[in-house]
Task: structure prediction
Amino acid sequence: MTKQIAELEAAQKLAEEQNKAEVAKARAELEAALSSEKAKANDLARQGKDYIQEIGSLRDHNQQLEAEMAKVARVGKREELDFVEEAHSWPGIWVGEKLPRNGDFLMAFSDAAGNALKPIMVIDNKEKASVTEADVRKLVRDARERKLAVAALVTRDESQLRHADRQSRWGQEDGVWLLRSTRAWLPRDFEVLCPVFERMRAEGPDYL
Result:
């Protein structure tokens, strides 16, 4: 009987030890899995932080690009702004507001009070290697849309005008009187055209 009790106690002790071992093993496995999940969570948090930083960096870079593009746009408009500043210094010339289309301004001779005199002309200020026939057609179309009888295509330099433009700088295109000129020539052209414009005011553009 004593032997059986001892065997039972030994078996119970062995079972308890095995149970403890299994519990310890399960705990170790659970702790390892928990540690792995924590590591994954930390990695995800770190990746999320990195993504947020990268998004912030991209946003800053985008803002810098937008600022640079704005600078480029301002440089592209500098030719037009320089032209307006120069035109304001010409005596007897009225300069209107910048029109929505690139390079387009309204100009006219002015009276003693600084008011615009008819005919008002649309000016297309070009800064490109060479003007094209499409530039001429666009300017004539713009003048017709605004119901203006006179337009001027103005380049910075003579070399930007085509040979045909230099040979025939004043003439009628589809019902619009068109002047092809440069920044240097335009003040003198206005002096020459002043009496023509006076007759236009008195007799209308068709007198020519």
